[in-house]
Fold:
Amino acid sequence: MQQVATELEELSLAERAYRAIRDRLVMLEIRPGAPINEEQLGHSLGVGRTPVREALKRLQYERLITTYPRRGTFATEVNITDLAHISEVRQELEPLAAAQAARRATATDRAVLTALRRELETAGTPGRDSGELMHLDLQVHRAIYTATHNPYLEDTLVRHDNLATRIWCLFVDRLADMAGHVEEHGPLIEAIVAGDADTAARLARSHVEGFEQAIREAI
Structure:
């Protein structure tokens, strides 16, 4: 029993490490190209090296870190040429996710989305920190993906949204209306909560297309 409890604890720590390191990479708190130090990460997260190593295995698969023989592990560079590839996937799957969320969202899912909808109302407050807005954007997307109740679709879109967010972070200082982009989620959430799959799909596609256009204008 003690061994089972220990294994469960390690799984829990690995998941906690994964989520924390993932979001540091996504928000560019760990800068592109920066070396990844397992010991330092473990210390900052309050976990041992084993959970950190397990987390890094997942993050390499998700293209957030890369390992070079005899050189070490590094945060991946953010390459603007990846934008078209990422958008191509998201333009197909984001509308699908929005439609499925509208069809399948539980009462709990709708409550979470409704709470996020209320928070979106303050997105345009003057002086709102860009980091807070991007965290809110991530929360909204992840809540929609969860509401699809399709773990394969959710995992795929989380990975691609993470990569898109890294590009967004890279150009955030050049974007004219970041708050407006985040606020666009309001009608999308309303359509999902109302169970309107067609409208949700249309709004999701428009949102992805608008994101790509905004980034290209900022380059």
